[in-house]
Design a protein that fits this description.
The chain is α/β, with parallel strands linked by helices and about 200 residues long. The chain contains nine helices and seven strands. Strand 5, helix 7 and strand 6 form a beta-alpha-beta unit. It is globular, with a radius of gyration of 16 Å. About 35% of the residues are buried.
Length: about 200
């Protein structure tokens, strides 16, 4: 039994924090898991910047409402779901992802949640589980699934390497150079074909 585990941001939808950085005019918010491997450190950094600028969940959600899936992403996901089970495993948050899931046809999503004060200030975050991507892949394997994984960032590498087959998708040159053993693709058709052939 195969199950495909996909990253969300950078693979199926644009990076939310980059979009918000552009909308808010705050360049420091462009940092993502492509730049910072330590997710806890990255989120604390982001929350500090939001507080400094008096920005909260409402402003980020207004930006997210204007984000569409990457061209071809929904068609890729629809085609993939015809041939196998798919779970999106993301370090994003329920409060961010829901409108994007609607645009992608409501695929299964495992993600985290934000702690938000009554005034909309983001005060913290709750990770669903430690090392969520790798832990989820191992849990799926423990109940009889062969996992096939794909993502673009540092935080995807463990789940990709632990899977029966794993692929980088639209990753950075640095990550590709550091992981030459991982096939890397930039087009959805190529990724779909690679997944098909590894099943």
């Amino acid at each position: 039994m195969n199950i495909v585990c996909l990253d969300l941001e950078g693979v199926l939808v644009p990076e939310i924090w980059i979009a918000f950085s552009e909308a808010s005019g705050i360049p420091e918010l462009r940092r993502t898991t492509r730049d910072e491997p330590d997710y806890d450190k990255l989120m604390k950094y982001r929350i500090g910047i939001l507080k400094e600028h008096g920005l909260g969940l409402k402003e980020i959600q207004e930006t997210i409402a204007k984000i569409d899936p990457l061209p071809g992403a929904k068609e890729f996901l629809d085609e993939l779901r015809k041939i196998t089970q798919v779970i999106i495993i993301s370090d994003t948050f329920t409060q961010f992802a829901t409108p994007l899931m609607e645009k992608l046809g409501w695929p299964t999503l495992f993600c985290n949640s934000l702690e938000v004060a009554d005034n909309g200030e983001i005060t913290g975050f709750r990770m669903r589980i430690e090392n969520s991507k790798l832990t989820t892949v191992k849990a799926l394997q423990s109940i009889g699934y062969d996992t096939i994984a794909s993502g673009d960032s540092f935080n995807d590498l463990a789940m990709i390497k632990a899977s029966k087959a794993g692929f980088l998708f639209r990753s950075t040159d640095a990550i590709k150079a550091d992981n030459p053993e991982l096939p890397a693709f930039d087009e959805f058709d190529d990724l779909l074909n690679a997944i098909r052939s590894s099943m």
